[in-house]
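Exercise 3.2. Students should predict the tertiary structure of the chain below and write it as structure tokens, then compare their answer with the key that follows.

Predict this chain's 3D structure.
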Amino acid sequence: MTAVKTEERERKMVEAAKKDPARFADLYEHNFERVYAFVARRVGSRDQAEDLTSEVLQQALANLNKFEWRGVPFAAWLYRIAANAIADHWRRDARERGSEVEKDPTTDAASAEELENQAALFRMVRTLPTDQRRVVEMRFAEEKSVREIARALRRTEGAIRQLQFRGLERLRAQAGLPAVASAQAGANSGERNG
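Answer key:
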């Protein structure tokens, strides 16, 4: 699916959810993994990440009528809600411990351009064949080891590595980056000739 079609589809989902909150389920399914990955990278535990992700999506539903299209993906709005929820989490945590927040973790929050790039990457990942997509998501969004993925998918570790490699090569091609295999082949042929 092209970026334009994805944006149109997302816009339609938002408009439908604004009219009927029960339709927010589509937006939830479409964005849960990316919000979870964003939150999980910034908090200490899986339980905290799950709780905060749930809180972010509840806030998004409650404030959906305030959302306006401004040329960035819907996920960027969710990331902003998530960044605020994470900052609140750290402040609450600091108060409970009786200390001050040494560093506001949201200062590391991505810029609008970085968020757009992340959203584009998530869209590209969704276009991968199912097995490659599952491996890439488990490996990078869920931060699972090759061994854990192999167990979960009932495949060998070699098969998981191959699916990961092929998925990453497809993503590189979609992004217009050189393939690792061809870059290595060029380097190897240069070594033989040089």
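Discussion points: The chain has two domains: 1-110, 128-194. Residues 101-109, 182-194 have pLDDT under 50 and may be disordered.
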